[in-house]
Automatic annotation (TrEMBL):
N-acetyltransferase domain location: 3-147
GO MF annotations, alphabetized: acyltransferase activity, transferring groups other than amino-acyl groups
Keyword terms, alphabetized: Acyltransferase, Transferase
Domain of life: Bacteria
One matching Pfam family: Acetyltransf_7
Protein name per Swiss-Prot or TrEMBL: N-acetyltransferase domain-containing protein
Organism placement in taxonomy: Bacteria, Bacillati, Bacillota, Bacilli, Bacillales
Length: 157
């Protein structure tokens, strides 16, 4: 089967919001679609989708927080990456993640950071990343420092 990874467009809203609900969003469809429309029109947000046979099977959302006032560094954050369970381990998550890496480079980010659920940690470890620490309720935190040409906390550094 052919899988397509692409940036989202306005008409993806209902399908992306359905994926968000599948993932466990507590918000109602109308509010999700309103935020999707707003974020997809904002250059500080990156939303891409994985599509297979005209069906959205996953999405990713990242955010550019801009330049830090004191340090001058720029942080991008991977907010969500989700692939339907029946489509996992087929490359969609990996390709969506690569899209975030490309977008972060284009945005000239110094850092890319993200938290992962315990179940998603195995996915990031397969990509070669190790958590730098745990925050909040103990969720693993990951980061990439683009300023060093190496991937810190990665087995592929």
């Amino acid at each position: 089967m052919n899988m397509l990874i692409r940036e989202s467009v306005q008409h993806d809203g209902p399908s992306v919001c359905k994926l968000m609900k599948e993932q466990g969003s507590p918000d109602d469809q109308h509010r999700l679609e309103h935020r999707f429309k707003r974020y997809s029109n904002d250059s500080h947000h990156y939303i891409a989708v994985a599509e297979e046979q005209d069906e959205l099977i996953g999405y990713v959302w990242a955010q550019d927080f801009g330049v830090h006032l004191r340090t001058g560094t720029k942080l991008c954050r991977l907010q969500e990456l989700y692939v339907l369970p029946e489509h996992r381990a087929k490359g969609a998550g990996r390709q969506l993640f690569k899209g975030v890496l490309r977008w972060s480079h284009i945005r000239q980010a110094t850092w890319l950071q993200w938290h992962a659920s315990f179940s998603a940690s195995a996915f990031y470890e397969k990509l070669g990343y190790e958590p730098v620490h745990q925050e909040g309720q103990g969720f693993p935190c990951y980061e990439i420092d683009f300023s060093t040409k190496q991937r810190p906390h990665s087995r592929h550094a």
